[in-house]
Amino acid sequence: MALNPGIIAIAVGILSVLFFLWRKADASLDPDEPPIVLSRIPFIGHILGLVRYQIGYFENLSRTTHPVFTLKIFDSRIYVVKSPEYVALTLREWKTLTFDPFTTAFVKNALGAPPDVVEVFEKTMYLTEIHTKMHGALSIGPDLAKSNVRVLNVLARYLVPQETNLYSLLREAYTIAMGEAFYGPDNPVPGLIDEIWDFEDDLGLMMIGFFQRIVARKACRGQKRVSKAFKAYYDAGLDKNANELIQGRARIARAYNLDNTALGIFEMAICFAPITNVVPTVFWMLTYIYADADLLRALRHELAFLGNPLDTDKLRSCPLLISTFQEIQRLKQHGNAVRWVSADTRLDGYLLKKGAVMQIPSSVLNTASSVWGPDAGSFNARRFLDLDDKKTRQRGYIPFGGGRNLCPGRHLAFTEALGFVAAFVLGFDMQGAKIIGARTHKIGFGARKPERDLKVSIRRRAGFEDAKWSFNVGGERDAAPEQNV
Question: Is residue 484 one of the residues assigned to a domain?
Fold first, then answer.
């Protein structure tokens, strides 16, 4: 049946209007706003790109020469920052370029907190007090030392000869170590490993706040199970054995009349945050080190003075190990820093409009040849040997965030990653290590995850046949742990 010419004419007219509106999308922008980048597919192109490529979509768009540019999705604006200079400016404007609304959205959408709990976050000083407690408990000092030595001496149980899948081993080891170090020996974490990692895997979908049971079924189920298990933990009074961070958070919550149900809801945030970046980081460190015989030899020479128990304070005197850690973070720590524009803000010559979202894709900053040189995409364990903290910040290198939202757990992550890697490198040979690719980097991820696991054979190194590893952190030392066999 032939199509009606009138219908064809109407359809062509509508498509022509839509195409014209799409091409004129920048007309609604203020002339001082960052220049717009249009999608190839009108109106929904950016949405399709984000769904398909996730964080990689920002990498694709960042081939533009503009240091800051705008994406328009219907009436919403996203400003993308790809220049180190503008990253520094963004972090300075913390009063109007703020992360706080995303914290509330996380509690409401991802954790599923009820309205009365969300109201405490929005209308009281609860969140400020929690941030103060977190920074205090995780700053360098006796509280952090106690947490770190507990983490490392649980990890030491896994420093034994074995045939294993490396990523799975690290995932289990660090999750259980976090559970014992933070919550004490009688904690529910060993039975919740899959639930914690399922939540992180679909965090971006959980943040949307609707249809979670359909689009993020495992993550939604995991959050409910974790909440229930930790309500029982608090009901039993087991937090008396927790570290200062957990005990302090509970005291603050109760002061705001938040009950054990609310505490259980919050606990997923503490369970996944300390481990879901450090596990892939340690995986990448070990695979890159053991795939390079010269690097392995040089690190063993540098680390030889550490001894056993391994004193983690001495890790600061291991520049090649630290440089290797930083280089892995440069290549693999590729989450997006995000900010909400709470008021019209001038960023150098650009106008940022209230209600927009800012995205700072670290993958773009960390692999730009204009910043890091022609080998920017390659691993170079010695790259950071001649770069101090100021020089790295000038390059937009912010693996732990920056400004007012600098990650409070950065000292914990440094010690638990490098302490374990140092003992592993000193005490063990490993067969099967190789450089492999990474998974699609989802929105919500920090560190890139490997595309698959690696089957490895771990054997004691000559001279370390009888070693039972333990750690000393800031003068804190637990008894030598019983090691898995």
Answer: no
Sign of CA dihedral 258, 266, 128, 124: negative
Task: Note whether residue 111 is domain-resident.
Answer: no
State which residues form the domain around 254.
124-333+367-472
The answer to whether 407 is annotated as binding is yes
And the tokens for 387?
């770069």
What's at 3, amino acid-wise? L
**404: alpha, beta or left? (left if phi > 0; alpha if psi -120 to 50):** alpha
* Pair 467, 142: CB distance under 8 Å: no
How long a stretch of residues is the chain? 485
What's the CA gap between 429 and 459, in Å, rounded?
Answer: 5
- 426 contacts 461 by C-beta, under 8 angstroms: yes
10-residue block means of pLDDT along the chain (485 residues)?
A: 44 37 53 88 80 81 84 88 91 92 91 94 92 92 94 96 98 97 96 95 83 86 96 97 95 96 95 92 98 98 95 96 96 89 94 94 87 92 87 78 82 96 98 94 84 97 93 73 50
The answer to whether residue 55 sits within a structural domain is no
Q: Which CATH number belongs to the domain containing residue 263 in this structure? A: 1.10.630.10
Place of tokens 């005197």: 317
Contact yes or no for 417/286 (Cβ under 8 A): no
pTM of the model: 0.89
Please give the tally of structural domains in the chain.
1
Burial class, 417, CB count within 10 angstroms (exposed 0-12 / middle 13-18 / buried 19+): buried
